Every structure is written in structure tokens, then in C-alpha cells.
Amino acid sequence: MTQRFTITVNGKSHTVNADPDMPLLYALRNDLGLNNPHFGCGLAQCGACTVHLDGQPIRSCITAISTIGDAKITTLAGLGTPEKPHPLQTAYVEEQVPQCGYCINGWLMTAAAFLRDKKNPSEAEIKDALSGLKCRCGTHISILKAVKRAATMMG
Amino acid sequence: MTKLEQTSAFTRRSMLLGSGALVVSIGAAVSLDTLLSMQQAFAQGARPPLTPDQLSSYIAVNADGTVSAYFGKMDMGHGLGVAIGQIVADELDVPFKSVKVVMADTAVTVNQGGASGSTGIQMGGKQLRMAAAEARRTLVEMAAGLLSVPADKLTVTDGMVSASDDKSKRISYAQMIGGKYFNIQLDWNKQYGNTLYAPGKAQPKKPSEHRIVGQPIKREDVAPKVFAQENFVTDITVPGMVHGRVLRPAVAGAVPTKVDESSIKDIPGAKVVWDKGFLGVVADKEWDAIQAAQKLKVEWSQVDAPFPEQASLYDHIRKASVRKRSVDKENGNVDDAFKNAAKVIEAEYEWPFQSHASMGPACALVEIKDGQVTCWSGTQKSHFVQEGLALTLDVPLDKVHVIWAMGPGSYGRNDADDCAMDAAVLTKAVGKPVRLQYMREQGTGWDPKGPASIHKARAAIDTAGKVTAYEFTSKGFSRVDVNTNGGKPHDTLSGQTLGVALKSGDGFGVPAESYAFDNKRLAWETIPPLLDRSSPLRTSHLRDPVGPQIHFASESFIDEVAAAVNADPIEFRLRHIKEPRDIAVIKAAAEAAKWETRASPRRDQSGNKVSGRGIAYAQRNGTRVAIVAEVDIDRSTGKIWARKFTVAHDCGQIINPDGLVKCIEGNIVQGVSRTLWEEVTFDRKAVTSVDWITYPILDITETPGEVNVVLINHPDIAPSGAGEPSIRPVAAAIANAIFDATGVRIRRVPFSPDRVKSALS
Q: Which chain A residues are closer than 8 Å to B691 by Cβ?
């Protein structure tokens, strides 16, 4: 049954009582009240639930809370703020990317890890890095422009 | 003073407190009694009833001078709220930033139809324009009385009314009415929904007077989304809330016959809600509700598998009895012309069921407290959900409040309205607020589907190669097995599972174009649904309802006729199209795409990698779109990359060009996805496309490299819609480009690699 887990999210420590098999997504959304990751599929197919685990993007909808251990979790709110935005957030606002915006969390978190590790990526490399994400509104053209813009800013 | 005492809403004290600056700014020119007298005529302290014939139902000037625009539609992500704000600000002569558009909350907006048919600006904006114009007229009239200056000698700048020849004589909107409500009757046409129209006495401004309309103002909801500060409907919680999930049968049409509640007894707080065909669970924690839904042991009734094999879908449609036939357009004598034809060209096209497959499955939260129902929903039709909830819960309409919040994507009648009703059933049963989110397989598997159809076209050609007759007939499932909203129990899964019979309506459509053939007939035929109760293949509106399928067929066929007479596809179209705006969009697209005049297919390519170009065009409720697609095809894999689109778009007056371009880009990309990838799969028992693997949509590697949008602005033509028209010709433009590249005509969507490869081999 439920166990006690301590997880570190955006630099703060939290304690959660949960079934060990419960995906991290539900701890973040329901126990911590963080709206950043969204439930899109529960199958790791769309990316809407993406968070960083020690800097690497993971799909929180299939990641059991018992597997997190001491790894540091970063959500979109931990990526940047209006006062201190991540270049991707600045670029997304400039390019007016989202339509409904439900998927945007996954695109931002995935691209943030990619651009951190890959300077001056080619268009093909950007597309490849983001190919596992879904956007139903069809904002891909703006997404690509924004990621290129952010890549330049982070150059 | 008697006057003051009669006015319960106003006291001298509140006037003095609320408008203290008034006396200072206009000195002795206006007495307090005069102001109060004016306000009595035009304003009141309590909001008048929320009816379509009250100006206060659309516009309010707040105490701080900001303006609230109450809009009975909502923005599903195109920035419609910005456009409405621009329209209102322009008519009222207030800064854009001072207008707050309040959307789709049933407590403060009237039923303008919700997000529907790309009418946000076309019809919703038209009403807000008229209301804002009437508000300005009223305020100027008030100012005329207060300042003792004739109305035609007054000007308004940023919400300040002043005498044209003496700017010291001035009074602001806020001073006159801030925080109060207009008491002005409008001339309502007695209609609700999209067609609601209630003008006042005012004439709106001439387009040449627009200053804010036409500007590329950015959306203010982008930053909150990007910084994780926006609450989607999925993010809303209330105290005491529990989580719900519903269960659907493995064989469509089956109902639970035995439910073993002990199978979930170990799950904390888990409860079963079972009534006839409705089956759901709730639990305190969301993960527990999900577990309960998975672990609950249920026996379902034995029913005959209701569906045909998918491989025989189009045969089923061909052979099915016609429930309704409608000839929407006919001229000349089509049958005689075909008898006399030198040559007849015929073709048939096929389009599958498609899913909304919204980014997340639908979510709703329903709370019932002291007889008052509150529902948070991502619906496109909050006022109809209000009606649906009143009927589902058997409470008076005025006891239901629906608050719209951005849902996880919406492109028509998706699963949102069903979810709101299901959540209400659960809430009523357990006596606690229930937040229900469907699971992925329910969102994709059980949403109302865009209908599958076949389309037959034929053309009669005379010996000179002239088209003497044209006939186009669609036959398919109706576009409205369930209505475009959840306003009636028979249109929702909860209603149907609780025993209300499905009332499948009849609706399809015909091509929207202006080809002038001497003898022409455009018709449609609907067939009965596959299942007469809660069905995962029930149909309803999916973005540009039946538009993509009809125009895939009709614009592919026009291309086939052009090829048959060895004509350039654009030159052939321009021979027959009569409406100048249609001609203009086609010419604009051709010019921007640097279209080379020649017949298709091109014959100068060899090898596996080939390219082609295709044109398609359509009208939609006043809007005209022409699209040139340039595609690359790998013959060895069948993979298509729709590399570039040139889109010429004419929707009359443009309110916000940047918002419009984004809206068109989304249409094109989603159109490519639906053309190349999307097909609901099913077996005899159920829908089997239930996630992103089994219902693939395009990913970023398949996204067009360029969408070049040519906007044609007609400031003097009232704006028509943009949310859907440009998805309409996408499939045909791609099909025509494939033909241009390969000489092979693909007549069934989607153009998946396997299908293309097989067609090319």
C-alpha cells in the first residue's frame, strides 16, 4: 500500500504518501499542486507530462514515484519565470507559439534539455530531437521557429 | 433629492465616493442631479437580467475605466479573444489594453453559440461590434446632456468624451457609468446561438475609421501558458473533490450486467456508480480512481458485434440504404446532358472516420452545493452544456452555472460535453464534487467521429473538350448522429447509457465553389449509424465538418477532368469559376507559388524521389481559400512530404493579420495530418485506434517546411471565418500534387506510406 516518498522538485523538498507504482505525474499534479506537466496519454507517447529528472527529460506519466530516489525534478515552472525566463520561454512568447497550449510543456522541457546539450543545432537535429512529441493544434511551424530562435539566443 | 431617494441603487454618498473626481474635472458644468438623472435613463446599479436584448449583457464600463466585453463564444487557441477586444476597443474608442473579454461563462454571457463553424468573428464579433457601438452612442448621448454640448460636437479619445471645440469640457466613460450597468434595450432577433443578433440604434464605424482592427496585436494568454501559469480545465480543483473515471464496454453496445464491488474494496475511498448502462468509479485520489476502473470486475451483456469489418467499410456505405437524399444545388438538365456526352469521366473517392484525438482526453469538474450546480468544462458550447446538465440532473436551468476553461484541445464536438455530463452523473451519485478526466483510449476511442464517406463524381465532355455536365454526390454517415453539443441527453454518452434513445440527425453537405457548368447537380445522401445507441463510431462535427472529405473529392475530380482535357489545372479552373473573389485567391496563390502553366502530370522525372505541385480551392461561408501544395514523394517507401504550401486566403476584413496567419498554419498542418495519417480503425466489436500509436498524427519531421500565407484583405467586406476554411482544400491539393509528380491518382485518404507505395507500384 502507500509509502512515504521524499522528492525534490524545483529545488524544494516534498513528502508524498503514495502507492509505489503511482506515476510521478500524479504526485506533481495532485499532491504538490503543480499544473505544469499535463496528462495527455499515460503511455509516454505524447510528451505532455515531461519533466526533467537530473536534467534529463522523462515522461512522468509512466515513471513510478518509487523509482525517483534522490534525483532532482525540474518542471516547467522551474525552467524559468516571467522575470527570469528561459530563452525558450522568451522565444515561445515572441513567436506566439501555442494554440490550446496543452502540449507545450513537453515541447519546452524536451527542447530545453536538447539545447543545453547541443549548441547550434541544425534544423534536422532539432526536428529529430522533438520527433517524439505530439501537438494536435498543428503549431509545429511556430515551434520550430521558436526553438531556432532560442538556439541562437543560447548560441 | 426625491429622485435620489427613489434610486435604490444609487445614493448621493456612493456617487460622491465613486465619482469624486467628477466635480473636479468638469467644475460646475454638471450638477450631481443632472448626472444622476442621466444615469437613471441609461444606467443602473444592479445588472439587468442576462438577456440578449440588454446592452449590459455584452458591455460594461468598470469603475476604473476598463471595459468588460461579455462574449458568448470562446477562443480555442486562435486568439479570438484578442480579435474581439480589438473590435470592441475600436468601436468604443478605448485603448485595446483596457478591454477585458470574458468568454463563455454562462453566468455573465448570453448564448452566442460557443465555438462553432468559424463564426467567432463572423457572427460573434459582429454582435460585439454592434453592442460596443451602441455603448459608445449611449455614452456620447449621456455626455451631451452632462456637458450641454450636442452629441455631434463631441469626440471620444481613450474613453474620454470631450467637446470638439473645447477640450476642457470633458467627461470620461468611467465618470458617467463606471461600475454601473447600461440600461439599454437592444433589438434582438429572438435567436440564440450563432445567429443571435441584437443591434442598438448606433451605426458601427466605417472600416476606414478603424484604428485597432487590422493591427497584429499579440495574445496575452501565450506567456501564462509558457510559464505554466494558466489553469486548464484539467487543473481546476475545489475542496472536497474526488476523482472519477468511467468504464466503457469492450463490445460497443454492451451494458454491465454484474459489477463486483468487492473487487476494488482495497482501494481507499473507491466507490462504484452503476445505473443501467452507465458505469463509473470515484476515489479520493486520482491514481486510485484509475486503479479502481482497471480492477473493477464487470460482466457485460452479450451483444452482437455491431460493426462491419473495416476492410468492407466503403462497401457498407455503397450498399447501405439511403436515409435521406438532398440535392442542394442543381441547374440545367444534368441527365440529358450525360446522355448526349461524347465522353464521360467518372471517379469515386473515399474518406475514413477520423477522431478529434485532442491532445488530452476531456476533463470536467462538477460541484452541486445547496441545489446550485457548477461545472468547469473545456466545452465549445458552455450554454448548451448548461442545458444538458439541467436535463441530466433534473434541475432548473438557472441553477446551473457552466464556467468554460481551456481544455486539452478542441476541434469541434469532441469528448468534452460527454465528459461534463458523465461528471455530473458521478457527482450526483456520490454527493461530492467529482473531477472526471477520461483516459487516452476513451478520448480517442470514444469521441464522436468525423463521418466516413464515399463521393462519386462524373463529368460529361463534348467533342471539343468542353464540360457540358457535372454531377457530384456524397454518400456517408451523417455528420450529426449526435448533435454538435451536449444540450440534450440523447446526444451524450451518459444519456444514451442511461437509456435515452439516440436520435441520429441527417446532415452532410456539397462542394462550396463557383464552377459554372451548364448542367450541374450537387447532392448528398446519408446512411443510418452502425449502432443505435452509445457508439464509439457515432458521428458529429470535427473541424470543418465534412469539408475536407467533400473537397478532397470534388477538387481532386476537377483536377482529373483538367488532366483528361490536357489542361493546366489552374487555367482549367479559371475557365469555369465565376466569382471574382474565387478567381482572385486562385490567381494570388498561383502567383505566390510561381505556378508554371502546364498540364499534369509532369513527365520530366525519373528515379524514386519525385516532386509535384497541386492546386485546390474552396469557399466556406463567405471565405475563399486557394492552396498550392508542393510535395516530395519517395516511390520506394511511399512516404510523402508535403514540403510547401502557398495559401491565398480571403475572409473579408482582417481583424488581426498575425493571428490569422497562425490560424491558417494550424489548419494546414492539421490538414496534412488528416490527409497523410489519420484513420479510425475498428474491428467488428470496437474502435481499435485508441492512442497515438494506433491513431498516428503527423510529427514535426513530417511538418511542412514552409507555409506561405497570402492574406487578401477586403476592409469593406464584413469578416467571415478563418478557423476552418483553409483545412478544407488541403487533401485535394496534396492529392493533385501526387498526381502531378507520379501520374497516379490516389482516391482514398489517408495517403499512408503503404497505400501510396502500393498505388505507385
A: 41, 43, 45
pLDDT in tens, B344-391: 999 999 999 999 999 999 999 999 999 999 999 999 999 999 999 999
Q: What is the SS3 assignment for B129?
A: helix
Nearest CA-CA partner of A60 in A44, A78, A79: A44
Interface check A36 vs B, CB under 8 A: yes
Spell out the domains of chain B, with CATH numbers in brackets.
Answer: 2-226 (3.30.365.10), 234-303+356-445 (3.30.365.10), 548-760 (3.30.365.10)
pTM here?
0.96
Of the candidates B669, B689, B323, B749, which has an alpha carbon nearest to the alpha carbon of residue B505?
Answer: B323
Query: Chain A contacts of B219, Cβ < 8 Å?
Result: 96
Torsion of Cα atoms, B380 then B382 then B383 then B388, to 10°: 100
What is the ipTM, given to two decimal places? 0.98
The number of C-beta contacts closer than 8 angstroms across A and B is: 171
Taking only the tens place, the pLDDT of each residue in B658-681 is 999 999 999 999 999 999 999 999
Interface mutation vs chain A, best among B74, B103, B227, B245, most A CBs within 10 Å: B227
Average pLDDT, stretch B82-110?
Answer: 98
**Residues composing chain B:** 761
d(CA A43, nearest CA chain B) in Å:
8
Residue B342: how many CB atoms within 10 A of its CB? 12
Measuring CA to CA, which residue among B452, B425, B473, B464 is closest to residue B567? B464
Structural domains in chain A, CATH included, are 3-78 (3.10.20.30), 80-154 (1.10.150.120)
